[in-house]
Design a protein that fits this description.
This protein is of the alpha+beta class. It folds into 2 domains: 75 residues, Arc Repressor Mutant, subunit A (Orthogonal Bundle), CATH 1.10.10; 82 residues, ADP-ribosylation fold. The protein is 32% helix and 18% strand. The chain contains 6 helices and 9 strands. The strands form 3 sheets. It has a 3-stranded antiparallel β-sheet with strand order 1-3-2. It has a 3-stranded antiparallel β-sheet with strand order 4-6-9. The protein is elongated and about 50 Å long. 28% of the residues are buried. It binds ligand HQG.
Length: 181
């Protein structure tokens, strides 16, 4: 179990690596990598209690494996969830027959009209487990899980990607491939 402080630091690292590196004055390369030394120094300047040991622990223990180091641990990036344009070099992959997306009931009308859109992120996020989708939906309010006919989409030429921490990603899901469960 991660300590509350590690969870808090992890959320801040997600903000920096997915959405806003400028908030602590660093930048990411085009594949989303930050320099580990720069990240630590910049976080310390921003008043965060972090060093290499703490960062290693946060990355290793994060319950969703949200971050990855490069081989020699000089660079770090988020495995998914970006709103800023980065190219993670993910290869298209054949999805399972069904995937799931958790959302809030208040978004359903709009989703029925437009299908699932990326909104602020780089991809629509899908899961191969209903339970995971349910927890994702709960973050937004009264949850509802949508079944995604992923294989049918794949057969029609839609591309799917699998992030390093096992989140399925795609550009959009038209309503025709969705079903409320
Ligand atoms: C909804 C977490 C209206 C969509 C999770 C969702 C995930 C629409 C919200 C990752 C819509 C966007 C991503 C449309 C989609 N009209 N609403 N046409 N299309 N939406 O947070 O999937 O914990 O950007 O259903 O585990 O909730 O941060 O996406 O409710 O993997 O690592 O718009 O974030 O990962 O919300 O979550 P988000 P998400 P972490």
């Amino acid at each position: 179990m991660q300590s509350k402080e590690d969870i808090r630091l992890g959320k801040f690292i997600s903000l920096v690596l997915r959405h806003n590196p400028q908030t602590i004055g660093i930048s990411l390369d085009e594949q989303g990598w930050a320099d580990v030394g720069q990240l630590i120094e910049a976080m310390q300047r921003a008043g965060k209690n972090i060093d290499q040991t703490i960062l290693e622990r946060i990355v290793a223990e994060n319950e969703k494996q949200r971050y990855a180091f490069n081989e020699n641990h000089t660079k770090i990036r988020a495995n998914q969830g970006h709103s800023i344009a980065v190219d993670l070099h993910l290869e298209p992959k054949q999805p399972p027959k069904l995937l799931y997306h958790g959302t809030a009931t208040r978004f359903l009308k709009s989703i029925q009209k437009q299908g699932l859109k990326k909104m602020t992120r780089q991809y629509v996020h899908l899961s191969d487990e209903k339970q995971t989708a349910l927890s994702v939906g709960q973050r937004h309010g009264s949850p509802v899980v949508l079944k995604v006919y992923a294989h049918k989409m794949y057969q029609k030429g839609y591309r799917f990607y699998l992030s390093q921490n096992h989140v399925w990603l795609c550009e959009e899901v038209p309503w025709a491939y969705l079903e409320i469960i």
